[in-house]
Design a protein that fits this description.
The chain is an alpha/beta fold and 269 residues long. It contains 8 helices and 7 strands.
Length: 269
């Protein structure tokens, strides 16, 4: 199937690992041209080299999109190199496990900065180029917790819900400019945070990492497994493609059915 992404210019934040890294590889496989960023420039370059992404089609930029100056520099670098921006994937973000009364103002500011404000600023920065080019796609990586809050994750819940609300608000506001805005909401996907938790459970209980994965995902996820970053990347690729021309304002769970059911069975730790 031709997705119509050949030579499209794609910006991806948080591209050095996990979902962002998988998204970069997916767009390159479809012939895209990429501007990618990470706070850790060395890690980003190492990931691009390990994945065999061609240097002539990928611009790596060390940037923290939680900082306004870095955001502007990232967009300028993309435009200087490629002259246009067709797709933006807002993937930067981080969780913050804490109860409400444990979150002082500075911790609230951090979680909102990393997840919501980074999305606001980077989207705002690319809009002039998208309008000038006749339209574009903005795809925001939120989380299942942005649709169904998780206990003990109030800061992340609020920030990710803000990303979903921003997505739906901008979808209506930007439709006249032919700019479509959608979100994906991953559930239990094997990124670094979940991998660390799997490894910890395996050590603590003296079991294999495969068994630890089964215990963590098998009691709540209807598909009884973790998701893979490339499975999230596939949805993002579709939303950027010509086949998604009538989709805007959507927030799509990628969660193995986790958000569609209430599981009352006892959970393993």
């Amino acid at each position: 199937m031709d997705l119509g992404l050949k030579d499209r210019v794609v910006m991806i934040s948080g591209a050095s690992r996990g979902i962002g890294r998988a998204v970069a590889a997916a767009f390159i496989a479809e012939g895209g041209r990429l501007a990618v960023c990470s706070r850790n420039g060395e890690e980003l370059r190492a990931a691009l080299q390990a994945d065999g992404l061609p240097a002539d089609r990928v611009l790596p930029v060390q940037a923290d999109v939680g900082r306004p100056a870095d955001t502007e520099a990232f967009v300028r670098a993309a435009l200087d190199r490629f002259g246009a921006i067709h797709v933006l994937v807002n993937n930067a973000g981080a969780g913050l496990p804490a109860a409400f009364e444990e979150l002082a103002d500075d911790r609230w500011a951090t979680v909102l900065e990393q997840n919501l404000w980074s999305t606001i600023r980077l989207t705002r920065a690319v809009l002039p180029a998208m309008r000038a080019g006749g339209g574009g796609r903005v795809i925001n990586v939120s989380a299942l917790s942005g649709l169904r809050p998780r206990l003990g994750q109030v800061g992340s819940n609020v920030a990710k819900a803000g990303v979903v609300s921003l997505t739906q608000s901008l979808a209506a506001e930007l439709a006249p400019h032919n700019i479509q805005v959608n979100a994906v909401c991953p559930g239990m996907v094997l990124t670094s945070r979940w991998i660390a938790r799997v490894e910890r459970l395996a050590r603590e209980q003296g079991i294999s990492e495969e068994e630890a994965q089964n215990r963590l995902a098998g009691h709540g996820v209807p598909l009884a497994r973790f998701g893979r970053p490339d499975e999230v990347a596939g949805i993002i690729l579709f939303l950027a493609s010509r086949h998604a021309g009538y989709i805007t304002g959507a927030a799509i769970p990628v969660d193995g059915g986790l958000g569609a059911c209430i599981d009352l069975r006892p959970r393993s730790p």
